[in-house]
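MODEL INPUT / OUTPUT PAIR
PAIR INDEX: 1
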Amino acid sequence: MSVTRRLLASGVVGATVLLTAAVTTGTASAHGSLYGPVSRVATCYAEGPEHPQSQVCKDLVAMSGTQPLYDWNEVNIANANGQHQQLIPDGKLCSANRDKYKALDMARTDWPDTGVQSGSFTFNFRVTAPHQGLMKLYITKPGYDPTKPLKWADLDLANPVAEYPTSRTATNGYYTFSGNLPGRTGRQLLYLVWQRNDSPEAFYGCSDVTYGQGTTAAATGLQSLSAPSAPTEQQIAAGYTRSTVDHQGHGGDHQAAAAQGSAAVPLPAGSTGSLVLGGSALAAVAASAVFVYRRRPGALSHSS
């Protein structure tokens, strides 16, 4: 085989390997956070990691720094595999037992809360990387005391307020689904568990709500008490370079998540578009290199 043919074959094979690797790792991992009612971590990120407004978010930054807020869409356990209660001890539910997010477990009554009433409720989850799985939302039992660390026994695990099978696509970057809030009074907490069914990875979140407030809660399902806000698309895009969230080790790609987060456009099934493009570009570079080599004066063409 001539040297030129060897180079051509090597370039094609190498580009094919790179393209295959890119496509293989291109399936985006599931990331995101509840926007309605807004989760604790999303609320504090929306306030601004560098200049939070509420005292509780200021205390979060003082305790754990700003990184947990820039990584607002990654309160997870990579190898949960449905073993949520075994892996997360009492008092550490909101952080998923991760030291990075430990400030989310602070037991206090000044977390920004959303006003709700009993009955039908529409939930919104901002997805930065959709994936197949099952999302469950639980609410605290009557008598819940927000000044004490949250325990599994505080949650009504037998009666989820919502269960939603998630898919590989998310309309406009959101999962939107209905549930039913039971009768409660005063401040309560919603706890989210999102278990992927194609991976052992799971995601978690805490959202604070208060019953009996707001006149439009029954009609809209959402009424702000202390004005908790979700991050805007501009905030997501602006904070992307500060995020340490990538999807290495559990399927996914930082670039794909960035595109999803800044544009709020659902990734296609398989979520491989950005990396397929990257692989195609690599193949083009390899082919171009071989072409340039063949055009060089005096290029070797001896047979083996």
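PAIR INDEX: 2
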Amino acid sequence: MDERIYSKDIIEFVTVGAEYCAFLERTPELEKDEFIDKIIKILPLLYLKATLLSPEEPEEEAYTERFVTESMYESVRMSIESLLGEDDNYLEVFQSGMEYSEGPLAASISEGLADIYQDLKDFISVYRLGNEPQMLESLYICYENFVSYWGQQLVNVLRALHNVRYSTHDDDDDDDDTCDCGHHHHHRSSADDRYTDIFGHQQGDDDIFDKLNDDVD
């Protein structure tokens, strides 16, 4: 048994990768909130496990079969696009060709996730065959693609998904400065409030540091 393809780090990467692929394949069964809540947990773990890999370039090139067809790719992509709706599109500055653009380029969460799916599904499918030379080759290709392409796709998409997941909280910001009296006031920050609680009145930073130094002395 070749330790280079059965190490703890590789097994864990395979496990998370398989979970990712299986999850995307179940997209049509999921609600939007459920999908987003789950995928923003899987992606950071997948990125972490990929960074722990350090595969050696195979001495001899082995033929590695491709398993993800164009129809499979499109099925995954379209399922995600349909689920996310208008939230599927976002603007991105970390894209190839960005240097020729005057501003951010349009990008798609569904396309980014499908790109990651394609590389992972191909690798995992080869890994399950048990042919060690092919497994080594496929692992190396998957890792190289992570470094050069889908790793960046992953962090781009995660940023967009984070915005979708938590942007609803922005709507509550305008309510923070409205008092019971119905008037809109400018309030101090929570840090300022803590300073007031400690010293009894609002003080500048220099006053605060002087007070702390006196207490130490």
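PAIR 2 NOTE: Strands lie at 89-92, 105-108.
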